[in-house]
Amino acid sequence: MKTAVISFLSLFLLVLTGAAVLTVHGRSIRKSEMEESAAIAIEQSMEILYADQTYEIRNETELVADFLLNLCCQIESFGDIEVSVMNVDYDKGMLELLLKEKYRHFTGKEGVITCRRAVILEKRG
Questions:
Q1: How far apart are CA 56 and CA 64, in angstroms?
Q2: Whole-model pTM?
Q3: For residue 97, what are the contacts with CB-CB under 8 A and spacing of at least 6?
Q4: What is the pLDDT of residues 75-87, one digit of tens each?
Q5: How far is CA 115 from the centre of its chain?
């Protein structure tokens, strides 16, 4: 009987520890994915606007739309992403965004991560 109780408690602690590790690890993976994806998406939008000029971005609305398109191509995890435009200036090449992702942990509890990114492009010449 004593062995059964010790075995049950050991198994319970193992499952509890595993759940804690998965929750922390999942949050850190989502946070790094959002930060990297936002940085890449902003960089790609600014390159199209000033360097490549693959297609024409004519105003601030199209710049934000291009960023959103690039961000959606980068993010692979499942969650609801809310993007707030803090500041945008098409002429100066400035874009500042606040991203918030809501997702569910494997336990069913809701998690939220935020990321703030800004870029100011310097024109030379």
A1: 13
A2: 0.75
A3: 38, 42, 67, 83, 84, 85, 86, 116, 117, 118
A4: 888 889 999 999 8
A5: 7
